[in-house]
């Protein structure tokens, strides 16, 4: 069984994330969405809320692609999380050159820690390349329209949280 791990904070999950999840699910039999418990980032949504959003948004994708998609919270090293869930690959989404520079360093470090786990980069589709959760939250906070960046369910959660 090919298992992939797609890590992130997903605060909140965006259409860009969903695009990468959809495309990554074609590469593996099981896709684990690693939800980082990064307390330093001060997420808008709790871990439980982020996991619930991911599960709700990915249920259709899982049925559509016949790939098992599960959310898995983690707070340890990414490479250790990959080992914990039995992942042979780590999936990373790229939006721009700046993403690649950071990811390049991460891959190098992860290869030293465990060279049996490969990293696969998927470029976000052009229409999703500008989407970042941080920007989505800022737009929503300032009462802007984020409907082009998130699903209706996530949009409603943002509106409820931010008033």
TrEMBL record:
ATP binds at residues 9-10, 17, 93-95, 103, 128-134. Its cofactor is Mg(2+). InterPro entries: Cyt_trans-like, PPAT, Rossmann-like_a/b/a_fold. Its main location: cytoplasm. It is found in: Cytoplasm. It catalyses: (R)-4'-phosphopantetheine + ATP + H(+) = 3'-dephospho-CoA + diphosphate. Its EC number is 2.7.7.3. Coiled coil: none annotated. The record marks 17 as: Transition state stabilizer. Pathway: Cofactor biosynthesis; coenzyme A biosynthesis; CoA from (R)-pantothenate: step 4/5. One of its GO terms (molecular function) is pantetheine-phosphate adenylyltransferase activity. One of its GO terms (biological process) is coenzyme A biosynthetic process. The keyword Transferase applies. Substrate binds at residues 9, 41, 78, 92. Residues 5-138 form the Cytidyltransferase-like domain. Keywords: ATP-binding, Coenzyme A biosynthesis, Cytoplasm, Magnesium, Nucleotide-binding, Nucleotidyltransferase, Transferase. One of its GO terms (cellular component) is cytoplasm. PANTHER family: PHOSPHOPANTETHEINE ADENYLYLTRANSFERASE. Belongs to the bacterial CoaD family. Homohexamer. Reversibly transfers an adenylyl group from ATP to 4'-phosphopantetheine, yielding dephospho-CoA (dPCoA) and pyrophosphate. This is Phosphopantetheine adenylyltransferase. The gene is coaD.
